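Note to self: keep these together.
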Amino acid sequence: MNPPHLRNTTLLFILLVIILLITAPRLVGLGQFVTLDEPNWLKFSSNFYYALGQHQFERTVYDYHPAVTTMWMVTGALLSYFPEYRGQGQGYFVKDWQFNEFLASFGRMPLELLVRSRLISVLAITLLLVATFLLGRVLIGTEAALVATLLISFDPFFLGHSRLLNHEGFLATATLASILSLVVYLEKSRKLYLLFFSGFCAGLALLTKSSAILLIGLAGLMILGRLLGDWRERSARPSIFPYVLALLAWLGVSVAVFFLLWPGMWVNPSKMLYEVFGNALSYAFQGSRLSVTGGIEPSHFSLDSSDIHYYFNVLLWGVTPLVWLGFLLAWLGFFLPGNARSEPLARKLTAYLSLLAILFVLLFSIARGRDAAHYILTSFVCLDFVAGIGLVTGVRWLGGRFRLLAKRSIRYCLLLGVLLLYALNSLPYYPYYYTYASPLARLSQPDMRHPNISYGEGLELAAAYLAQKPNAGELTVLSYNGIGPFSYFFSGETHILIRDDRFSLEELQELKEADYLVIYSVEQKPRDGSTALLSALESIPPEKTIWVDGVKYASIYAIDQFPESLFTAISG
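Structure:
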């Protein structure tokens, strides 16, 4: 056995390698493109920061997310980039363009603020993934924990989203760290810091998105499972009270974190909870937020399971074949005979994480009103960790049949080689890693539209094309979702393209006075019932078409080339 200082040195080396492998692909090109949601979160978070400066803590609520961790990250970016923002008396912004103009008046750029916010998010996710490895090695050993952590880190769908300013990357890693810490507490060491860390991570997850409520049910199930296991394993049945107290302590820490880190809870907790969970319920069962439905009406509740097919396709297109293989091997580990059978803790983790992955899919499949591929990012992370267990189980099984693979060093080289190829598989999708398309999906559904694209990617390429025009700073462009994905990369004036079927006289005049029109072709497609504008444009060739990975993303039109008949066709 190696002496402690050598073991510690090895662990430190592994941690440094993990940190490097996690951060390197996430820090490169942080400001290269902007998604549809991120400009909104800069604005909402800046309102959060302004509310803190004005001590108007009741204004720190946003809808149903609650996105408090995201808003703290942007607050950190503001403190480093524009700390005086909170004291300018500007009030609370509703429109993105107003917020951007305010920043510009002080010589600040929203893209720089976004990059700093993304950087803070990447660092937070990195810390949680390091915690995932450290907790995982206690449960399933260094080899499996390393493979599982790197599978998560290199997963193209997770990699793509975890370098953006959104909620799902942090939610997924906080959720996973909470589960692993609770399993270590229940199965390995009844040390309170493990229970408290699990509750702390659960509190952070709940502060990020209301869907983290699933963690509470899973934690209760895990504690119940440990109680039933102790009843079977011990001759005298243990008291139920320590298990109840553990659950209450876990909940207490989660609630404390939820309360302490959300200033709105300090002054008006009922409003905060009603806004977040009331809006979440209203969206899930009534299809719209409270401001539309007018309140929670159980008589109007209904479930719609039509999105199950959509989320099945999200998984089919986004999950890599290697992860599906590892996931299958992990479940086969339940049934293999003798020494080839996976360890009891590995089987428990496989069951718990698989259940959580299914629950996230079901939650968003039956909820009404909103759907997006990244809503089930936690499912991807759970599948990745389970796949790590399965791949190591499979290689160890092979080691029992082939003497060469019985050597740990050979197994490590094989597994790391596979992971390297896995990571390289994502590189062609840079910087839009989440647009990865599994070959399984391409083969089985060659004519289907990729469900994990059209999140704003490609609009910056349209902006770059127009930015090369002479006197680009004097040009005016109308662009679909132009504020952010397009405007952050264009020095001229950007207006938002309306989505209505017909243009009013004022909107028509705005179109005529602009120089260029940008259509986000990957999202805006002429079909039955499409807008009059898209139908009119079908007969007009664009000046420039933006293609990414064989998909037409954007079309750029010179408005002075439009015939008068087009304006007549779209006028209301």
